[in-house]
Design a protein that fits this description.
This protein has eight helices and two strands; from the N terminus they run ββαααααααα. It is mainly α. The protein has a two-stranded antiparallel sheet with strand order 1-2. A hairpin with a 2-residue loop joins strand 1 and strand 2. Helix 5 runs antiparallel to helix 6.
Length: 129
C-alpha cells in the first residue's frame, strides 16, 4: 500500500511514486509497448492504474485512456500521411480490423481515413505547385 500523509482528510501521496513517473521521457513509446492499454501502461510503469490516472490528470490534464486514444490516432494519421494504406496504419496502430480503425478515426478526426488521405494529398500537391 502506498505511503502518504493526510492533509485535511485527503491522502497526499509521497513523491517517490510520482517522481518515478515524472522521470519517464518516452510516454508515446511506452504507450505503443503497452498496446494502447491504460492498465498495461500502469503495469509497465510499476504503478496502479489509479496512480497513473492521478499523474495523467495532473500532468497532462486528461485521463490516460483518453491520452492513449489520442496518441494512437496521432500515430495513425502520421502513418497515413507518410503513404501507409488504411490497412497498414490500422495494423501498426494495433487495431485488429481496418473497419474498427476507420470507425475510431472518424470519431476522432471527423472524417474517414480515406477522405483524410485524399485531402492531405490534394493539399500537398497544391503546396508543391
Amino acid at each position: 500500500m502506498p505511503t502518504g500523509r493526510f492533509n485535511f482528510g485527503v491522502r497526499v501521496y509521497d513523491s517517490a511514486m510520482n517522481t518515478h513517473l515524472h522521470h519517464i521521457q518516452n510516454w508515446p513509446g511506452l504507450a505503443r509497448q503497452a498496446k494502447w492499454s491504460a492498465s498495461a501502461l500502469a503495469a509497465k510503469c510499476g504503478v496502479s492504474v489509479r496512480t497513473l490516472e492521478r499523474h495523467f490528470l495532473k500532468q497532462m490534464g486528461k485521463p490516460p485512456k483518453l491520452w492513449l486514444a489520442e496518441q494512437r490516432q496521432l500515430m495513425a494519421i502520421e502513418l497515413l500521411r507518410n503513404g501507409s494504406t488504411v490497412k497498414e496504419a490500422a495494423g501498426h496502430a494495433g487495431y485488429g480490423h481496418a473497419s474498427t480503425f476507420s470507425r475510431e478515426f472518424k470519431k476522432h478526426w471527423g472524417n474517414c481515413p480515406e477522405t483524410h488521405c485524399a485531402s492531405f494529398r490534394a493539399a500537398k500537391m497544391v503546396s508543391v505547385a
